């Protein structure tokens, strides 16, 4: 009986170690993204501030490999996703992607390159996402805390599934905003996407 208990304990330790190793890969992915922000965006912000097209291009190259924009758009559309046509889904995902990239780009130019820190992994929830916290500081001295929620896509490939900035859940906020757009446009998905694009363009 004691031998069985020891074997089960050993298997449990091994399994938990493997899970922790996977979590570390999620954090390493965020570290790589943050380092790219620091070296390719923030450190070159004097040039990029005068060249919006170059800024968008660089942010796109950093984020696209680690963000499943189609999946993110599906979560934002919520219950309306099934009703949308394939063309509407693609258009919505494109609008969402363009807005996120533009928003990220303009925000990154305000960061202090010497005050960016990826924190050690803390306790994780029971879901499939791994939360990686990063502390940023603006040029003005104001702190900016961002939690990157990473999801395992298999083969050690982790992608960003949601972002919480200063306690504002972007995925949830976008979902609520799009639901309002649907109500305001009599549940016409096409019109709601147009309104969504116009609304986000004003904020980006």
UniProtKB/TrEMBL annotation:
Keywords: Signal. Residues 1-21 form the signal peptide. InterPro entries: MlaC/ttg2D, Tgt2/MlaC_sf. This is ABC transporter substrate-binding protein.
């Amino acid at each position: 009986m004691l031998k069985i208990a020891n074997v089960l304990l050993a298997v449990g330790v091994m399994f938990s170690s493997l899970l922790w190793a996977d979590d570390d890969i999620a954090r390493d992915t965020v570290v790589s993204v943050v380092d790219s922000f620091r070296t390719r965006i923030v450190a070159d912000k004097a040039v990029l501030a005068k060249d919006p097209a170059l800024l968008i291009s660089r942010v796109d190259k950093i984020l696209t490999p680690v963000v499943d924009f189609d999946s993110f758009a599906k979560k934002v559309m919520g219950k309306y996703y099934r009703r949308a046509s394939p063309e509407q889904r693609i258009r919505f995902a494109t609008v969402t992607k363009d807005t996120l990239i533009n928003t990220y780009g303009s925000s990154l130019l305000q960061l202090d390159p010497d005050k960016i820190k990826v924190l050690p992994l803390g306790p994780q929830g029971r879901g499939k996402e791994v939360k990686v916290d990063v502390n940023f500081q603006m040029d003005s001295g104001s702190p900016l805390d961002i939690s990157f929620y990473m999801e395992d896509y298999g083969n050690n490939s982790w992608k960003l599934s949601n972002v919480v900035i200063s306690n504002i859940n972007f995925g949830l906020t976008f979902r609520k905003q799009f639901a309002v757009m649907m109500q305001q446009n009599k549940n016409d998905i096409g019109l709601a996407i147009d309104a969504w694009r116009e609304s986000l363009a004003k904020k980006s």
